[in-house]
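Researcher: Good morning. I'm working through a list of sequences from a screen, and I'd like to move beyond sequence-only analysis. For each chain I'm collecting a predicted structure so we can compare shapes side by side. This is the next one on the list. No need for commentary yet; just the structure.
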Amino acid sequence: MKTADGILYFDNAATTYPKPESVIRAVTYCMRESGGNPGRGSHTMALRAAEEIYACREEAASFFGASEAEQVIFTMNTTHALNLALKSVIRPGDHVLIGSMEHNAVLRPVSALASLGTVSYSVFSARGTDAQILSGIRAKIRSNTRVMITAHVPNIANTALPIDKIGSLCRQRGITLIVDGAQSAGHLPIDVGRMNIDMLCVPGHKGLYGVQGCGMIVCGSEAITHGRTLIEGGSGVHSLEAGMPDELPERYEAGTLPTPAIAGLSAGIRFVKQQGIASLHRRECDLWRRLYTDLSAMPHVRLYDSTPGSVLLFNIDGISPAEVSEKLNQRGICVRSGYHCAPMAHKTLGSIDNGGVRVSFGAFHTERDVCRLRDEIWNIARQ
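Model: Good morning. Structure tokens for this chain:
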């Protein structure tokens, strides 16, 4: 999908572009017609804003298998959601499990808690067969293991963890399962109830095609219900009390919510439902296969993961990822280079020395777009 000035965008794992027209209309309509502050008044504009917020809670709860709209907690982004989920339930002395392909949004909060002596953590291998992964997890569980926080799908490869099987294991062992759905929400079906996910943390602006400024925790259990708060402030209810309210979602939603972004997220979820997750994923895989097949035939091009999906990581021998990205940018093509805030994943894939160049597909790409990208990569590689 080209922009008006001919730029070809392949950085959808960072944020999807372009946004569906229905999302743009929803954001614009909200700013024009529902511009009040939700929960902060009983006048018409505040009530309209509150209706927008609740409508999105219902959309998200239905989409991700939560039993009630109140189980959807809005956050600033996925990183905020992961920090809130983890720090609400963790206790001094707990042991935490994380996977070997984590984004820094998981690694850094866990590492920070460990550096304070609050918790300890272990890393299980997120590569291999389902049986191998589950066996590796069992070997890492300790008597004080209380939380697992892990990515469903990493941001530089397409291999999904068997979250349903991991969820069953965690439920049997009394371990709270927090899932980073930043790269799977909107790409793969997720049902927090069926998959035994206690807290699913997702962005609004990636595979759900909303705009930046909004994320969510979708609760599949009551694990967070009476947890510690990360931020305190006005919630619109129980204003005479010094503490945050006990009920969800108000307990964790201090301050003004980004109503226009939430309205856009609601429209984005409807867009994904209308397109169909299976259809969107199948199209991404088809484009991935076309590019992977062509790049694998090029000398000096190195590929790191053979699982079809929405992202493809590569390098060109003798040229840094940053230089490849800049050369593509000069040719009007947007990709992302470097470590993608995921050093653990790069170490696991064998690209830790220099990082890599990431291509990520979206709903509006065509085969013609992929062919143009392929040709420009070839031009760079042969020089």
